[in-house]
Amino acid sequence: MSLQHLRCPGPVSRRSFLEMGSLALGGICLSDLLRHRALAAEAQAKPQAATPDTSVILIWLQGGPSHIDMYDMKPEAPDTIRSPFEQIPTNVPGLDICEHMPGQARIADKFTLIRSITHSWNGHQDGAQRFLTGYNPPRPAMNENVYPSMGAVVAKYREKMDFGVPNYVSSYNGGIQYAGSAYLGKAANPFVVSGDPNADNFQVKNISPPPELAESLDNRAALLKGLDNFRRELDQSGSMDSLDKFNRQALGLLTSEKVRSAFDISQEPDHIRDMYGRHTWGQRALLARRLVESGCSFVSMVMQRSGVGKSSNWDDHAVNWHIFKELELRLPIYDKAVTALIEDIYQRGLDKKVMVVVAGEFGRTPKINFNRGVGRGHYAKAQSVIVSGGGMKMGQVIGSTNDKAEEPKDRPLDPNDLLASIYHYLGIDAHHPYYDHAGRPTRILASGEPISELI
């Protein structure tokens, strides 16, 4: 087979990801979640409570966004490297970004751009696990979550804090690789939101009773019996009293106006929905804001399948499609959603309560590749990340790369330094150990320090 017929499969397909089981909450019900949470609580050491009134939104650009075409452009580089896009100034002197992101250029004083994140794992599975968990995969291309992701750590650390809404929520449109809980147990997995928030029929499963029980809300016995439709499992002790306890809690979530309201994006006025953009990415970002505003501690939203062009994610290989044609279509949608999210958080006075992080598993190769199309390959030595809010210092650039955006020139930072900054903001002790499946105490992070320029 000739190379021109090859195609990078990119991030794992929906079917394969389901087989991994990293987002197993898609297959368990609320009573299962609560039961697993209580069982897991007995087996793990208890850390001190984290700072409760803080939240993180992770906008995940699955596939690996091109730093050199977006945030770290090199106009003086050779044409084999240089982006065809122009760079434009932002409202922060000395901070220039791609011309197709004018919204972010206008609000650059409300975010910090980190240009020097670097690691060594160039595969999608490897890079995602390295970035999201803070640990190297034991071997390449593993199809399971070996270490808990930061969202799962937050869920575990805050398991005793009742905010009235799930404390870890993830969008599901193919799934975030390695967003799961590993040895922290199923209770720390994300509450999964599938579907398109921009669709007229968008509905979140597992927060409303089945339609046939809608008229039985006042009949507790009928509703509890109907919870069998959520495929619950019997609790390990077989105690019906215990089972009833968890079902009572699940019933509380099922009938909670706060939960339904948090997920009901239709409550937003038209001008706010328009500000975010009437597309999947915009409404997904808006849903993230609604969730953290309601008390959710960690929300991860995937920006893939934009609905424009041929690309399904940020895996911009020459064998997949034409990177620059796709970015011309994709970046305006991305820019509108991210700009609106950051502006909205600041306008609502949430910038100390909410930290926004925009990242993917790695960057793209500086050298432009040609095959069936035009593209750039996987590249972990350099990538750019945006951080906004969290009461941190904004309107700055941290680190830089060399003249070809190949590697950090100054202030090289590990993904763990970013994770340590996130945990620090949330009041989580990154040195706290949890026990893995073999009974070994494993720290949340084995290395990494909060980024001083942010803190």
TrEMBL record:
Q: Name one Pfam family in it.
A: DUF1501
PROSITE patterns noted in UniProt: TAT
Q: Which InterPro entries match?
A: Alkaline_phosphatase_core_sf, DUF1501, TAT_signal
Top-rank taxon: Bacteria
Q: What is this protein called?
A: Uncharacterized protein
Q: Native species of this protein?
A: Gimesia panareensis
Lineage here is: Bacteria, Pseudomonadati, Planctomycetota, Planctomycetia, Planctomycetales
